[in-house]
Amino acid sequence: MADEMFSAPVHRGMRALNRSLFHRTVPLKAARVFDNKNIFKVRSELEKSKDSLQQDRLGSVYPDPDPERAKSGKKCVLLRPEVANHGTSASDQPNGDGEQHENGKDNQLPHSPTVTELVNQGLIAVIPFDLHLDYSYWTYHDIISAILPEDEQGEIPSGFSQVGHVAHLNLRDEYLKYKHLIAEILIDKNPGVRTVINKIDDVGEANEYRTFKYEVLAGPDDLNVTISEENCTFKFDYSKVYWNSRLNTEHRRLVASFKEGEAVCDVMAGIGPFAVPAGKRNVFVWANDLNPDSYTSLEDAVRRNKVSDYVRPFNEDGRTFIRTATAQLPQTEHKVDIMSRPGRKDPAAKAQILRTLREPKTFQHFVLNLPASALTFLPSFIGLYPPALCKQLPEQFPMPIVHAYCFSTKSDDNVAEGHLICEEISRQLQYEVKPGKVEDGDVKVWDVRDVAPKKRMFCASFRVPEEVAFREV
Questions:
Q1: Do 378 and 429 touch, CB atoms closer than 8 A?
Q2: DSSP run (H or E) holding 401
Q3: Which residue of 168, 206, 443, 461 pairs with 161 in a disulfide if CB–CB is 3.0 to 4.6 A?
């Protein structure tokens, strides 16, 4: 009953949003508190007995419905509908302070011991209260459920990706006729959203930069966004570069596996969601992306987040970059002094060098974040260290760990998928690998996220086999 009383008014088939039609008056009862000093006590007692109104997004304390009492700051506590429906008929009797208590002999009290006791103590009277709800009260789901025809509510569009002020939808065909209505309501119900777009092709379908075609459904056609992730700020044009806010957890997980002073080669770095946070952790990163717009935004992120001592942006082809970066790193002399910071006791103290980090001569990690085709880049690791390059490297150094993102099917345990991914890695490397632990020389297949009903994104991490890295080509 309560759900029905507080539900949004139904307007099936509405195509142009009319907010004024979403208004409802809910008849309730309220505990009129005679003395404001008792408001806390009354509310606490009614909350404890669960007699007060307990409805999402609504409080229980309101101004008294009587205008004169409201002017003097008098309050009342709304009661739950079940209490209200018992009703009261009242005859007023004055109490000692001149107030009119609605507590006559013919008063039919609600069937609640707590309410009855508070009335008998002369603290409250039970009065009618009309609660007025309007469009601002109901959620997006409430409003859209009241608009869509009942036979079209199987999977109400509710999920969206938010990138800065932009909400990015991927509407099913059956909901396209409501697209502008959906977008307007989304903006109304999400204060941080100013623009709503709908994707009209698959990511990467238009070009190799993983961008997509879109249409603006509501708000200005402005996709220049600013976002924050892992205490880093990124500013970019969402229509020209790839970004996925749902990968925040994965970005954090992988960056946490890098150690201070290590060198990472981020082959498809995008605007830097791995590279920039890694730089903040004092990790040396050579970050590359083929998309010129991504490269420009990456450069901006490096400057904006003050990680230029650690992150070097590049704009090259990924397959070539794997080998050229590996060859150029040993020829680079780069170090960073970690300085002390002034303390509270002596803010004028001169900064001291605590330690010095020297960029390694080899990469400890390679990140290949291009799930649709990253595994096809693995042949670039065959013969990664030719004899001429090995002469410039330490006599003994660990093989780098590759973190390659890919798509596969989905199952409850991912066992079959792990074998399929390893089979493809083996084919690309011309060297057999199997699922297992990285420290055992095997491939760790990490479940990242679902991307479709039958499609899942994985991260395959493995140490490059020496037989592959030193193979003559």
A1: yes
A2: strand 401-408
A3: 168
Give the tens place of pLDDT for each residue, 59-100.
999 999 999 999 999 999 999 998 755 544 443 333 434 444
Alpha carbon distance 155, 187 (integer Å)? 20
Q: Provide the 3-class DSSP secondary structure of residue 21.
A: helix
End-to-end CA distance of the chain: 76
Helix (H) or strand (E) holding 81: helix 81-84
Residue 344 has pLDDT above 80, yes or no: no
Contact 363, 451 (CB under 8 A): no
Q: Which residue blocks in 160-235 are alpha helix, DSSP H?
A: 179-189
Alpha helices (H) in 209-339, listed in sequence order: 248-256, 275-280, 292-304, 318-328
Pairing of strands 161-163, 263-266: unpaired
Residues 308/328, Cβ–Cβ less than 8 Å: no
- Using DSSP bridges, classify how beta strands 214-218 and 195-199 pair: parallel, antiparallel or unpaired: antiparallel
CA dihedral 19, 21, 27, 32 (to 10 degrees): 30
d(C-alpha 272, C-alpha 302), whole Å = 8
Between β-strands 284-288 and 263-266, what pairing exists: parallel, antiparallel or unpaired? parallel
For residue 332, what are the CA distances in angstroms to 320, 326, 358, 457, 463? Answer: 18, 11, 10, 35, 24
Q: Are 155-222 and 237-469 the same fold in CATH? A: no
237-469 domain in CATH 3.40.50.300? no
Total length of the chain: 473
What is the residue extent of each domain of the chain?
A: 23-134, 155-222, 237-469
- Which of helix, strand or coil describes residue 291? coil
| Separation CA 283–CA 272 (nearest Å) | 13
Query: What single letter denotes the amino acid at residue 202?
Result: D
User: How many whole angstroms separate alpha carbon 251 and alpha carbon 245?
Assistant: 10
How far, in Å, CA of 104 to CA of 92, rounded?
Answer: 6
Grouping H, G, I as helix, E, B as strand and the rest as coil, residue 101 is: strand
pLDDT at site 105 = 38
Domain spanning 155-222: which superfamily? Met-10+ protein-like domains (3.30.300.110)
Strands 455-463 and 335-339, by their bridges, are unpaired
- Cβ(314)–Cβ(321) under 8 Å? yes
